[in-house]
Specification:
six-stranded mixed beta barrel; 3 domains; 538 residues; Barwin-like endoglucanases; alpha/beta; five-stranded parallel β-sheet; 19 helices; Dimethylsulfoxide Reductase, domain 2; 22 strands
Length: 538
Amino acid sequence: MTNSISDLEKADVLLLTGTNTSENHPVIAEKIKQAVLSGRTKLLIIDPREISLSRFAVMHLRPRPGTDVAWINGMARVILDEGLEDGGFIESRTEGYEELRRALEEYTPQRVEEISGIPARDLTRAARMYGKAKRAAILYAMGITQHISGTDNVSALANLAMLTGNLGREGTGVNPLRGQNNVQGACDLGALPNVFTGYQKVDDVEANEKFSAAWGRELPREPGLSIVEMMGAAQRGDVRALYILGENPMVTDPDVGHVKQAMESLDLLVVQDIFLTETAALAGVVLPGVCFAEKEGTFTNTERRVQRVHKAVDPPGEAWQDLEIIAELARRMGYAMPATSAEEIMREIASLTPSYGGISYARLEEGGLQWPCPDADHPGTSVLHTQAFPRGRGKFAVVEYLPPDELPDEEYPFILSTGRLLYHFHSGSMTRRSRSLEEKVGQGWVGINPRDARKLKLKEGSAVRLTSRRGSLISHAHITPQLQPGSVFATFHFAAETANILTNPALDPKSKIPDLKVCAVRLERVGGGEGDAGATAT
């Protein structure tokens, strides 16, 4: 997030898109409700699905899935046409404005309506609401990023913020809501294929030499593979071994049938986890790691806040600390990685990572710190880009609308989108072991609009078969007006009926994120409406 969670109450307008916040980020959803109920903040939602926050919104526009670049560019066009841009900010803080202005000319509200289905008058009204606000903040999540155009979607939102000067001040910003509790920290500390810690690029000569010297080994100078690319490489035989820590791709990755084939093609699969997950069941070696309450360390949350985590209980059985397992593996492979503590690792992180340079366990005992925090006297940074951007001026990105990789056709007439439920998390490896949560929601379901349900003669709870070009599953119908006709929604928490049996592994060419939010499917009633959930993959 460019800003902080506490900023939400200072915004005049909050624009939510690609996020079912109440289900996925319930604490932040409560902050949004408080801001709206205070009377200060107006809520604008632009999302294909109706969500529980919709009843708090002044407007909820419902574009067709996968048309985000079109409607964002359309809003930007209206803002320019009506003179709502911040000329001073554009002049002093940005570059590339003229190129963007020319590119936006074709995104009239009428053309955007043809592409997205958003009525031109509603798009215009929404653009005015955002453009006239003194302080407007954008919040988005994986409904924006998990597309083949995910990077372009985010770039277009950044354009919108820069056009209106809604960056670098409280109550503004472009604010991604991260998908897991420490995914921000994992990315910050190099759990990406193209960067070291602090987003220092692997193929940058100076950065590479710095880390090579610190770790006493010459490091690769070419970026590695993303998760989806690894699976393709494994099936081709280009990757022969995988070591997976705390991840369950047999439930969470797109095209699960292909993932299984890739895993079975490996010479060696090692999984380190706290439970025997669906992925661990395929492994040749399973290493028992520890959960968050059994180790020392830090979490970095969605607002860049680094927070201290203390060990509360000892690990069960023969489980080792994760850092002990990694160090011992390194030693057995010929690298004398010293046994060390979490605090010593934090000191190493600070020494190599400018944005974490002033963060220490001693300081974190007094409370969390938001990076960048470059030195021990720095208080941390609650709002990014107050004076300048990391590259100096912010550069407007010209992005054009491209249709999704798959669109409905005669054989597969529905668009499938996927997501999470409030009562379960990710692959369910922990939450599905909770009796109370299983009693609340013990199986998956497929959301479908009442009009489509009538055509297919479906009732609430009817057994249905969903089929894509990659596989098929049987689940249960949940009839809801929250979805538009022609659209269906499925969860992925339940392994036997995970929607990722169906999803498309097509990648955003820039970020390598898979297209999990749009794929074409066929929906059929099963028998007399009764059936057991299950899945097949082709």
